[in-house]
Every structure is written in C-alpha cells, then in structure tokens.
Hints:
Elements: E1 2-4, E2 9-11, E3 19-21, H1 33-57, H2 73-79, H3 86-94, E4 99-104, H4 109-124, H5 127-141, E5 143-150, E6 156-161, E7 166-170, E8 177-186, E9 189-195, E10 199-205, E11 219-221, E12 231-233, E13 241-245, H6 262-282, E14 286-290, E15 321-325, H7 331-348, H8 352-355, H9 365-400, E16 413-417, H10 425-439, H11 443-449, H12 454-479, H13 491-497
Antiparallel strand pairs: 1-2, 3-12, 4-16, 5-6, 5-13, 7-8, 8-9, 9-10, 10-11, 10-12, 14-15
Helix pairs in contact: 3-5, 4-9, 6-7, 10-11
Amino acid sequence: MSANTGYGAITTGAGATGLWLPATHAAYTTPTDKDIAWALGAFAARRAEYQLYADYLAGAHRRFWRLRDDGAEFTDFLRRVAVNFCPRIVAAFTDRLRIIGFEPHAEAAGDEQLAEAAWALWQDRRLERHFNQLFSTAFGLGDAYLIVWPDATGRAQFYPESPLHVAVNYDGETRAIALGAKLWADGRHHRLNLYYADRIERFITRADNATLPNTPSGFRPYGDAPNGGDTVINPYGRVPIFHFGAEAGVGQLGTSVLRPVLSIQDDYNVASATLAVVREYQAWPLRWAIGIDPEAQIEVGPDRLIKVASSMGMDGGDKPAFGQFAAADLTAYFNNKESSLMELAAVTGVPPHLLHRGLGTPPSGEALKTAEAPLASRVEKAQTNFGDEAENAIAFGLVIERRAASADDGAGLTALWQSAYTRSDRDEAETVAIKVRDVGLSVRRGLVELGYSETEIDEILADKEIEREAASVALDRSMNVGGVPGTVVDITEEASSA
C-alpha cells in the first residue's frame, strides 16, 4: 500500500525495505525522553553483571590472595594463575545445540514449502555460525539478541548482538517486545537506536568526548539519512529483535549458566595459586646442618662423602649433625581442586568427565546416558525455548524477502535439533532402524534423528533411489532372458543343450 506522507508516496507492506523519513515527519514523532531514559537505565541495570561473565569467559578473573613481593617474577606468575573452566562449561551446553533442519507442523503444501524456504534461508545466510554465537552468548552472559533487517538489496540479514549493546522492553499485557534499544560506541560518540513496531529512531551523543551520558538530554537525532532524516520506517508490524534468554520465562531476562560457577571458579583459582606457592617453597626436602663451620663448603652428590673435621664441635658447640625436613604433602591441595570440580559438576549438571579427564573413566552405554541426564535435560529445555525464537526469526526473514505472508508463519515451523545425548553411532543407528521397521518412522525422519542435515538427507535418498532403479532394471533383465516377459530361464540348461 502507499502512505501519503507529504513527501511523496512511500511503499509499505510485507517485503518493503527500510525507508527513510525526515525527522520532522508528523506521523512518526521523535520518541519521548522517557524511552531514552528507559534504554539508559536498562543498560545500566545489568551492565556490570554481563561484563563480569564476559570477563570470566575471557579468563580475566578476580584475585583473592595476597602477593607481597610485588614486581618479582614469581609474583607476576601468580597474578596470571587462572585455570578457566567457564568456556568449557558453556561449551558443554552449546555443543549440543545444533539446528539440523526445519519441518512443517502440517503436511499441507504451503507448510512444506515454508519449511523448505526456511532451510534454504538458513543455509544461504550461513546461519549456523550466527546461531552458535547466539547460543554461546546466551548461556555465557544470560541473554543474547538477534536483529533481523533487510540490507540495501532487500535480502534479510541476521545480526547477533550481545546484551551489553542490546536491551528489550516487554509489554506487560501481551509479553511481546514493545521496544528495543541498541547502544554502542562510535569513535568518540555513542549511538543509540530505538526499535518500535512501526519505526526505528536513531540518536547520537551531543558531546565529542567518548563519555556516555546518563540523561536523555545528552543525545540528539542522528541525521545522516537521505533528506537529513533520523527515522526509518518499519513496515513489518513488529520490533525486529529476537531475544534468546537462557532458561528464561516468557517476557523475562535469562540467567547465565555461570552464575553459580563463579565462586567455585574463584576457589579453584585460589587452590591453584596456593599449590603453586607450596610447590615453589616446600615441594622439595629442605636440608639442614648444625655444628659445622659456617664457611665450610659442602658439596652433596651421589658419588660424594661428606667429611667433617674432628675439631668441629669441640669447643662446647653442637656436634656436627645433618638432616632434612620432609617435603610438603600435596595430596590435600589436589583433593581441594578435585572437590571444586565435583561442585562444578553438581551445580551445572555437566558430567565430571567433560570437565576434566582425570575425574574417573568416561562412562559408556546406559551409564553414559544416566551421567548426562541432568545436562541433556537442560539442553532439551533450551532447544524448546531457543527453537521457538529461531523459528520466529527465520519466518521474519522470509517475510522480509516476501517468501512468507506473515511473521506468524513461524508457528508453522518446527526446528529440528541434534540429540542432546551422546550416543555411539552403532547404538543410535540400531535404535532408529527399529523405529523405521517396527514403529513406522519415515526414513527421512530417521535420518534427521541420526543428525544428518537436510542436504545430506536429500543426497542419501537420491542415491538410494538410483540404486533401487538400477536393481529394478537388473531384475527385469534377468526375468526376460528367454525372450518371454515374466519367464524365468535356467541359463545353464540352455548352454548344455546347445
């Protein structure tokens, strides 16, 4: 449709790309200071927490031990002591979050085409990499965001965003995102975009000093668009931001999987630093000697005999004696570290053998399934929550490219995930084979459960069809050797009679 804006006809509707309007356009007024104030407050409220998790993932941990010999080489080493388990814990979850296809909710032709278009878009934009980043950020920091918007050619583009730069405000009644914000540094300025269901408002800080203002008055409209505008039309009827919150309820922020981990990680670092100090100063036996000349040079070695002059100790002093103090027993320190690892496994559900190879023998078979049950349960919940948002984001991308009529088409898609459990290839294949043979599971669905992508499945089924046709042709030829269709001829008898 067209909207009469006073600046000529502007085409809107599904599939239209972003269209700029002058800042003074009456139909799209500048957002109130209230919205800018909300954005600044939303970022300030959790910035420190998000940054803390980001620091721990990067290995920048807090220190809780005293270092007295500042500047010494060993002290510099202790400042760097941090055996970082945070990335491994996050990866234990995200390694099992892999979308391998989309399927329709119904067998209607339209839904089948929608699922095919969704997977084609996924592959064309190489979204597996983007979603890997999203899932890692969501589990590591608690929240992650995806902005979907057309590029200059009208193609839908997907932009993963950190919660350090993006925030959303949910409508209290509908639990839909009513307002989104993106805040980022741009040289010595800060930029701020506010996302509404019908427009995007853009701002930049007034002062040229790289300092983020804490009031709306510190921002002015960002007018680099055609005609000096700072507002872009959003013709899609929804805020183009998708929220991936780890273990979050509807309309709620997520919780980082690292929240209960940090204190245990700190304790492990202290144990590691303490162990380093003990090994440096007490790991070797400390020898002592009394009753000898302080200037005496004594050389110790496996081929040497220590000789002491008989005059030593004769003047009422101690008689010569030698000995050594026992080395420190490091067992307690190693046990302390192992205890911390077991606590990490308990609070996260990550099996101990995935945290450290030294924690027992990795289980197999049913024991492995039992050991992974807490982790797999949390992963499957994430598959449900993240899957809903992924389906909505992909459907919105199809709307942008005019391959879907409405973003509500996301309700007609189901994301297919690889199994949350670790299974042997043989056991898993046998299980799927039984389902196909006895339960009636389709071969395509069975291949999906085995973790094959849609492209791989199409190639496998095409190869099987070629083999089936070749076998059919061979059978037909064998049935027509005597020239009479359907007659089986004994070739050996014909040869002997000839």
